[in-house]
Amino acid sequence: MYAFKPLPMLRPTASRLISRLSRHAWRWIMRIAPILLVLPLFLQWLIGYLVGSDARLLPSSLQGAKNLLIVTAHPDDECLFFAPSILGVLDRNHDVRGGLLVMSTGNNTGIGETRKEELRGSCESLGIDLARCVALDEAELQDNPTVWWNTDLIQSIVTEYVHKWDIDAILTFDSGGISGHINHRAVSAAISNYASTNGEAPIAYMVTTTTLLRKYTFLGDLTLTALPFTWRILEAMAFPSPVAGLSYSHKALVANTWHRYMKTRSAFRNHNSQYSWDRHLYLVLSRRTQDSAGPLYRDLVPPVLHHIALGSHKPQGKWIDARNACLELHPGWEAMLWTDGNAGDFVRERFPELLHMWERYGYTIQRIDALRYMVLYEYGGVVLDMDLKCTRSLGPLRRFSFVAPAAHPTGFSIGFMMASKRNEFVGKLVRSLKMYNRRWFGLPYPTVMFSTGCHYASTIHALQPNRSELKILAGPLDNFKLHSLNGPVSTPIFNHLGSSSWHSYDASLIVSLSQIQSAERLQYGERMKEAGGVKETVECRRVASDKVEQATYDQALRSSEERTLQQIG
């Protein structure tokens, strides 16, 4: 038989270990609890009263907006979900004009007209212009928690009001709709698509959706909300500034002051038909004492402004004023001025294979044009002619990888271009320079235009198999020259001073031939109209003819380089 000795019991037992850990945990909780209680109050005071106006927390695109548009789904959304953001912007900038566009009257229970009247009182409490306090009543946009709204219709409506009210910043729901309501999410989807595809859309910010638990923690959630902004808050405390770098333009953090919180409650009291105990509780416990927001898209173009001043002629005073106007509208952007000195060094260092050709171009404008493509490829950003005076920020266009204004009748203008760094299309513009470096019968105009200028760039553009990523700014059919930079004109973005001093005698001949062709086309349209063969106006016929020319132009360019140049000529 075998005898076994009992093993000694292990000490300490599991229960004693758990008990000891519990006591230590409780001590830590008691030490941390006061901090957790005091920290949100401190942050609310700090952000609401002390550093809330700093551009690191409230971006310049919101603070400097002249016309702000808040887009919601139903009456009362503005005070339940957007009040801190609305008041945070309007109270800090008394020059901004706030507008509220509500996609429905909230007629789910048949009281739409009542809710429209209540909305006006809420707008007045929040400081929104009553002339811009609008609730729509569209058949396809009726309040219904089970129906996804027509996003194409929403986009067309928003586009209309953006132009009507000259909007330069939009505030709306994020993809979660804050409360998850299907109508809220449809509004977000529509504006997200509008902001990411329409070249004339202003910058759009979305208020962040959080979890249900965080939503009902009042100031307690401010600690978590402010956590990603920690470095910004510290910088704002140490180095206050109304202007911040573009790295701080993607998020906003707003905390209500006590006065603004009471304004929020006053605004909601106007919605008597919606007042209930649970909504009263929501106003008390909700995290809507603060908002965090971000843009509906990612910026692709670096915040860099390039101006080029080559040659012996000193820039005119009005050109310098135009450049300064652009710099003022883009605080925090890097400004680069390219002159004969640094331009040559740049080409020598970054594009040595093109240096010999670049230095021997026959015309200064050729060196300027080639340099546009090189600096745009190497650095990204925006290249602007010296005679372009900015009238609004180019920031909203940074969401596109390449932007340029349409030229007439075909292609695009290179006087203004935006591109991401190392953009593939811009790279092709650089790499194709040698192939197209030809002199055209001693005539400056075609030599420049076909070797480095607009026709050259438009040729490379037309040869691209996929141009969906290249945003060419063009107007509607009834105003297709809206963005054209031809002569002294004003566009939605610029005042063009029209200083094309490099155009020589041959340019006048080419322009005259173009005018004769256009006149003949109009006369043909008039004869057809008199004969009763067409119903369209002569102007519509001219636009249609231009479109046919564009299609023929594109087809010819794809055939071969020789056929391309013949077709353009």
Spatial strand sequence of the major β-sheet: 3-2-1-4-5-7-6
CATH class of the largest domain: Alpha Beta
CATH evolutionary superfamily of the largest domain: LmbE-like
- According to CATH, what is the topology of the largest domain? Rossmann fold
Q: Provide the low-confidence segments as ranges.
A: 501-522, 527-569
Sheet with most strands: 7 strands, mixed
Instruction: Quickly count the helices.
Output: 22
- The assigned CATH architecture of the largest domain is 3-Layer(aba) Sandwich
How much beta, percentage-wise? 5-15%
Helical amount = 40-55%
Q: Kindly state the mean pLDDT as a whole number?
A: 80
N- and C-termini, Cα separation: 113 Å
Shape: globular
Helix/strand class: alpha/beta
* Record field, number of beta strands: 16
Rounded Rg = 30 Å
Describe it:
The chain is of the alpha/beta class and 569 residues long. It folds into 3 domains: 47-295, Rossmann fold, CATH 3.40.50.10320; 304-506, Spore Coat Polysaccharide Biosynthesis Protein SpsA, Chain A, CATH 3.90.550.20; 508-568, no CATH class. Helices cover 47% and strands 12% of the residues. The protein has helices at 14-50, 60-63, 77-81, 83-90, 112-126, 151-165, 182-197, 212-215, 222-226, 230-238, 258-269, 277-285, 317-328, 340-350, 352-359, 364-379, 424-431, 444-451, 454-462, 505-530, 538-559, 561-568; strands at residues 67-72, 97-102, 133-135, 169-173, 203-207, 252-255, 290-295, 304-308, 334-338, 381-384, 388-390, 402-405, 416-419, 470-473, 489-490, 494-496. The strands form 3 sheets. The protein has a 7-stranded mixed beta sheet with strand order 3-2-1-4-5-7-6, sandwiched between helices. Helix 5 (112-126) runs antiparallel to helix 11 (258-269). The longest helix has 37 residues, at 14-50. The radius of gyration is 30 Å and the shape is globular. The protein starts with 13 loop residues before the first helix and ends with a helix. Residues 501-522 and 527-569 have low confidence and may be disordered.
